[in-house]
Structure formats: structure tokens, C-alpha cells
């Protein structure tokens, strides 16, 4: 897990502090700097400012250490905004990215006239009145297989914009000043969740008509989806692999590469 606030995303970049870069450096120190160096493979990239509750990564370690030793050793070296929550051995055929069968993301949105300074790094902000029932009805239109071309930012390298969302839900916290949306699907495109949240919030606030998501599927025009919500509210909640994915518990599912 990691607090994405001070990271320039997951993917390694020159002269930037990234999750992959920090983890790679620490794993190689633990392995006494082997040549060639150990490479980290993550389940997917998160952007600058995006958080993870349960990112998954794999690497080939050159020594036969107990998993508990790797777990404790890495956490003793990692910075305070990162923590390894579990270490396990996997087969030689396992790939953290290519074997993914599903992911869950959550988006936390602070509802208030002004952003709470103590939540600014961990929530998006929405200052307009919003109707929860309208939001829930809009989320129903997201479920199923759709062409999400209107919901993908430029710069995407995906070969297809068709994805399946198994469920999309929304709930308010107990003080009703934060809206949390959860999305579970077989894969997500570049900025897809943050764009979807912007559209759904506009529907909930009456800035768009109900049912507008169906229109956006048809027009396939990113500009008509308009805003992208801040990265600070987005969390990678869970990554699923064949056998532990509740939508596909036993059968092989389509991989998105």
C-alpha cells in the first residue's frame, strides 16, 4: 500500500520519485545489488497522487529467503508512505500485470463549499449540492460491457476501449460530508475512473441530464465528458487473479494487455 501524494505515480521515471523506483531500489539492496538488477512488475500503473490500498507486484529474487524475512526486510527499509502488507511465493508462470482478472477502485469525494485542508491529499472536492439517488441511478448505466472511448484520456496505449464494469456503487459517510464511489471491473483505461466520477457528479448535481452516460457511449468523444477529477481521491483497492475474483471464481477470464 502507498500514499501517492509525494510519488510521481507508480511507473519508474528518470529523476522522479516513483513507487516502482523506490521498491526496485530496496529489493536490489536486499539482494546485495545483483547484476543484472532485479526488475519489479506491477499489476498496473497509478498516476501521480493516486493511492493504493492493495497494489500487487512480482519480482524474481536470487536467494531462497523465507517470505517473512522478505516481508520484514523490505518494510524495515521502505519510507513511511509505503508498506508491504503481504509476501508470498508464486509460480514461475505468474505475472502481476498480465494475469489480472479484475480490479476494484474507490473514489473519495469531499462535499463542502471549500476543501478540508486535512483531506485535500486524500479526497477529491465537490462543492455543489449533489443528489445521492441520482448518482446511484447514473452508476447503473456503467455496469456491463461498454465502449468507454468517451472516458479515456489522451495518451492511452490500450488496444481496445471496451471494458466490463461488474458493479458500481456509492455511499455517504456517517457525517454526510464525503461521498465514496466504488468500481469493480475487468480493467480500467487511462484516467477512466476519474473521468467517470466527474460525469456522475455532474449528473448528481443536475449539470447533466440523467441517462447522459448512455449518450456518451454513443458519441465516443472524450471532450464531451469534460472534467477529470483530482488524483488525490482515487485509491486502488484490490487486484484480483483467477480463482480469487468473485466475478469469475474458477474459469479463465479475458486478460487486458
TrEMBL record:
Record bears the keyword Isomerase: yes
Give, as one word, the top-level EC class: isomerase
Question: Where would one find the signal peptide in this protein?
Answer: none
Segments traversing the membrane: none
Q: What is its EC number?
A: 5.4.99.12
The family database entries (CDD domains) matched by this protein are listed as: PseudoU_synth_EcTruA
- The record's active-site residues are 47 (nucleophile)
Q: Which InterPro entries match?
A: PsdUridine_synth_cat_dom_sf, PsdUridine_synth_TruA, PsdUridine_synth_TruA_a/b_dom, PsdUridine_synth_TruA_C, TruA/RsuA/RluB/E/F_N
Q: Which GO terms describe its molecular function?
A: tRNA pseudouridine(38-40) synthase activity
Q: How does it assemble?
A: Homodimer.
The record's function comment reads: Formation of pseudouridine at positions 38, 39 and 40 in the anticodon stem and loop of transfer RNAs.
Q: Which PANTHER family match?
A: PSEUDOURIDYLATE SYNTHASE, TRNA PSEUDOURIDINE SYNTHASE-LIKE 1
Name used for this protein in its record: tRNA pseudouridine synthase A
Q: Which gene encodes it?
A: truA
Amino acid at each position: 500500500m502507498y500514499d501517492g501524494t509525494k510519488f510521481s505515480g507508480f511507473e519508474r521515471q528518470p529523476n522522479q520519485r516513483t513507487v516502482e523506483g523506490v521498491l526496485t531500489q530496496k529489493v536490489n539492496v536486499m539482494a546485495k545489488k545483483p547484476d543484472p538488477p532485479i526488475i519489479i512488475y506491477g499489476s498496473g500503473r497509478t498516476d501521480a497522487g493516486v493511492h493504493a490500498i492493495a497494489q500487487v507486484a512480482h519480482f524474481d529474487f536470487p536467494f531462497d529467503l523465507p517470505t517473512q524475512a522478505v516481508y520484514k526486510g523490505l518494510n524495515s527499509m521502505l519510507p513511511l508512505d509505503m508498506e508491504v502488507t503481504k509476501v508470498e511465493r508464486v509460480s514461475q508462470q505468474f505475472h502481476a500485470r498480465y494475469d489480472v482478472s479484475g480490479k476494484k477502485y474507490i473514489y473519495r469525494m469531499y462535499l463542502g463549499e471549500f476543501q478540508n485542508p486535512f483531506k485535500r491529499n486524500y479526497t477529491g472536492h465537490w462543492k455543489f449540492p449533489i443528489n445521492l439517488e441520482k448518482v446511484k441511478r447514473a452508476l447503473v448505466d456503467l455496469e456491463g460491457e461498454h465502449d468507454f472511448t468517451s472516458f479515456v484520456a489522451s495518451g492511452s496505449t490500450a488496444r481496445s476501449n471496451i471494458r466490463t464494469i461488474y458493479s458500481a456503487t456509492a455511499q455517504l459517510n456517517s457525517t454526510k460530508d464525503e461521498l465514496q464511489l466504488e468500481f469493480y471491473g475487468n480493467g480500467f483505461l487511462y484516467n477512466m475512473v476519474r473521468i467517470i466520477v466527474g460525469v456522475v457528479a455532474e449528473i448528481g448535481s443536475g449539470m447533466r441530464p440523467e441517462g447522459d452516460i448512455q449518450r456518451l457511449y454513443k458519441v465516443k468523444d472524450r471532450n464531451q465528458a469534460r472534467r477529470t477529477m483530482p488524483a488525490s481521491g482515487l485509491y486502488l483497492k484490490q487486484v484480483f487473479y483467477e480463482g480469487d475474483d468473485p466475478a469469475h471464481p474458477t474459469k479463465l477470464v479475458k486478460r487486458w494487455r
